[in-house]
Design a protein that fits this description.
Structural class: mainly alpha
Distance between the termini: 53 Å
Oligomer: single chain
Number of helices: 4
Radius of gyration: 24 Å
Order of helices and strands: HHHH
Largest sheet: none
Helix content: 55-70%
Number of strands: 0
Length: 96
């Protein structure tokens, strides 16, 4: 942490108070945006892996709760109609 503080302060050396505040606010905002994108990306990857797991194994992925799993039903119905998935797979879905 000390090294981070030194690095941050070194970049602000010679600047006025309001310039330092403005710079740090912008850097903080930028880092928060990067973190949000990273978090969303991780969630997106997890979601895709769960969907792939289901389509490849026909088993509800542990990473999906019941309501999330139910969202797969329309595409599963479509794939059953195309005879690309066995209709037995539909038994995993609750009737709504």
């Amino acid at each position: 942490m000390k090294e981070q503080i030194k690095t941050i302060l070194h970049r602000q050396t010679g600047k006025d108070l309001f310039e330092i505040i403005e710079n740090l606010q912008k850097e903080t905002f930028d880092l928060e945006q990067i973190q949000r994108l990273r978090d969303n990306s991780i969630i997106s990857i997890k979601t895709r892996k769960c969907i792939l797991f289901f389509l490849m194994n026909n088993i509800k992925p542990a990473g999906f709760n019941d309501s999330e799993f139910q969202l797969l039903k329309p595409i599963v119905i479509e794939l059953v109609k195309k005879e690309q998935l066995d209709k037995v797979v539909l038994k995993q879905f609750k009737d709504q």
